[in-house]
Design goal:
single chain; Double-stranded beta-helix; binds N-oxalylglycine; binds manganese (II) ion; three-stranded antiparallel sheet; 15 strands; seven-stranded mixed sheet
Length: about 300
């Protein structure tokens, strides 16, 4: 077996979304294999691996090839009893701590519906996410796709005036904004402190490819120095532009798929499925090394 990476859609999106074959990533990788995968990530932004029967331990070990891991502190369960033991595995499921499907009106479930909005993982943390690695442990019989949008292509296709206008803009990101936009406000005082807005550049430069992309997310709720309605209208326009179907790859999950995406170059969103069915996905997250503000200063 030799590692090979092919575009998922060679005709309409030859540079976005790759399918990897010829490698078992549940066992330790060689440095060369890890480097080839990282190069594939730089090229495609999203990589799909099929048939990878991960345990959490093996998924954590694979993820560490790409940098230090981020704690799973973005959900309402942080600091409380969790279904998943490791503090570095995000529970992207509709299950409670006894592995029962959450009730339709469960607070955790309603909060997690925020994933249906286009976002980049952990943009609400001062140092946001580099890669997210999502392992499909159990999937519903229909629906539940994940969609990915290419934020490099989105940036490249803006007109020059708009590129100049947004080049130095800084946004505030918070989960309080994204949840407010779907009418979820059931936060404790502690959650509100943990989810205080952080600053992120609107245009970011990828640390390894040097390509520019739009750093957008449902979490972005303000632009520094702009009136809020004007900022929100601008952010909506940009998200609408960036998520045109020509920039989007829709992943239809099979059990034991692992999908890795580069949050520095993409946005993603979950699609709906029957809430009575089980969907159990485990996500590990590699952190960036700096905030986008620090990256811009260092450049
Ligand atoms: C995530 C996420 C989307 C999905 O894991 O970060 O947004 O389809 N998931 O579950
Ligand atoms: Mn996400």
């Amino acid at each position: 077996m030799t590692l090979s990476i092919q575009p998922l859609d060679p005709v309409s999106r030859p540079f976005f979304g790759g399918e990897v074959s010829g490698i078992d990533i549940t066992r330790p990788l060689t440095a060369d294999e890890a480097m080839s995968i990282e190069k594939g990530m730089d090229q495609y932004g999203v990589l799909v691996f099929h048939g990878q029967k991960f345990t959490d331990e093996a998924q954590l070990a694979f993820s560490r090839n790409f940098g230090p891991l981020e704690e799973a502190s973005g959900d309402l369960n942080w600091g409380k009893a969790r279904r998943i033991e490791s503090a570095y595995v995000n529970d992207i499921s509709n299950l409670d701590n006894d592995n029962k499907v959450l009730a339709a009106d469960d607070r955790k479930r309603l909060f997690s519906l925020g994933n249906r909005l286009w976002h980049s993982d952990s943009s609400f943390k001062a140092v946001p996410a580099k890669y997210s690695l999502l392992s499909a442990r159990s999937i519903p019989t229909a629906g539940g796709n994940t969609e990915f949008a290419d934020m490099r292509a989105a940036y490249d296709t803006l007109d020059d005036d708009l590129k100049a206008e947004i080049q130095d803009l800084v946004c505030e990101h918070s989960q309080l904004y994204s949840r407010a936009s779907i009418g979820f406000s059931d936060f404790t005082d502690e959650d509100r402190v943990r989810f205080e807005p952080v600053l992120q550049k609107l245009v970011r430069t990828h640390p390894s490819t040097g390509r520019k992309s739009l750093f957008l997310a449902s979490h972005a709720g303000a632009i520094i120095g702009w009136p809020v309605p004007e900022a929100r209208a601008m952010l909506r326009d940009l998200i609408e532009h960036a998520t045109q179907r020509k920039f989007v790859y829709a992943h239809e999950w099979k059990q034991w798929d692992l999908v890795v995406w580069d949050n520095q170059a993409t946005m993603h969103r979950a699609r709906p499925f029957d809430p009575k069915e089980v969907r159990d996905m485990h996500r590990t997250t590699v952190g960036c090394l700096q905030s986008t503000m620090e990256q811009a200063q260092a450049a």
